[in-house]
Design a protein that fits this description.
Blueprint (H helix, E strand, L loop, with lengths): L1 E5 L3 H10 L8 E5 L2 H10 L6 E5 L11 H11 L5 E5 L4 H9 L4 E4 L4 H12 L40 H11 L4 H8 L3 H15 L4 H11 L2
Parallel strand pairs: 1-2, 1-3, 3-4, 4-5
Helix pairs in contact: 6-8, 7-8
Length: 222
């Protein structure tokens, strides 16, 4: 597996290289210290990376090249590339913003090394990882259009949700970042029907936005 790490602390690159030495599948780690280095490597690497690890607190002199700006840019340019955000904090606002912008995971840098590897393993197979937090205290995040995400893994615990098989299909679309109209077209149902299904899914998960639904599924993936 080819992994691109974008972090402005060289020590993090050394630590992760050691941590992932026994990762399965084997990891070839490519390193970039800033946004420009990441852009250069993504145009040069063959094969392309299977996963991008992105530090959200990049110390870049250009405001448009901070971690969140680079996340937006990478999602737009490489929509099939799974991105996991790294952060020195696990502030709920940062977690919600990262997931809302299309990240497939958010890993605080202070997590246990084995938890870090477990989080990566989950994302590699299409899952979503977020740190433990209280979803009911999260402020509603506005839905925003985005490029479709890579396929997300539905945890077995979702089978117990009081939703119909069709609503499970709609939920899969939500996790992929698809807008209601696209979900409706793919499932051959009306957009209004999709909207009704989405509201039923929100009630079942105890959330009130797409972002919170993704976060809730991420908690179930743990």
């Amino acid at each position: 597996m080819h992994l691109l790490l974008v972090d402005d602390h060289p020590l993090i690159h050394v630590a992760l290289r050691a941590l992932l030495a026994d990762f399965d599948p084997p990891v070839q780690l490519h390193s970039a210290l800033d946004a420009e280095g990441a852009r250069t490597l993504l145009t040069q690497l063959r094969p392309s990376p299977d996963l991008l690890l992105l530090d959200l607190q990049l110390a870049d002199a250009q405001p448009q090249s901070d971690g969140f700006a680079l996340l937006d840019e990478m999602r737009a340019r490489y929509p099939a590339l799974p991105i996991v955000c790294l952060s020195g904090t696990n502030q709920m606002a940062e977690v919600i913003r990262a997931i809302d912008q299309g990240a497939m995971g958010f890993i605080p840098k202070h997590v246990d090394p084995e938890e870090f590897k477990a989080a990566l393993a989950l994302v590699v197979v299409g899952g979503i990882y977020v740190p433990p937090m209280r979803l009911d205290s999260a402020a509603p995040a506005p839905a925003r259009p985005s490029e479709p995400r890579p396929a997300a893994a539905l945890p077995a615990s979702l089978a117990a949700l009081p939703i119909t098989p069709r609503q499970h299909e709609v939920l899969q679309g939500l996790l992929l970042g698809k807008p209601n109209k696209l979900i409706a077209s793919e499932l051959n149902i009306s957009a209004d029907t999709v909207k009704d299904h989405v509201q039923a899914i929100f009630r079942a998960l105890g959330v009130n936005s797409r972002t919170q639904a993704v976060l809730a599924v991420g908690q179930m993936n743990r």
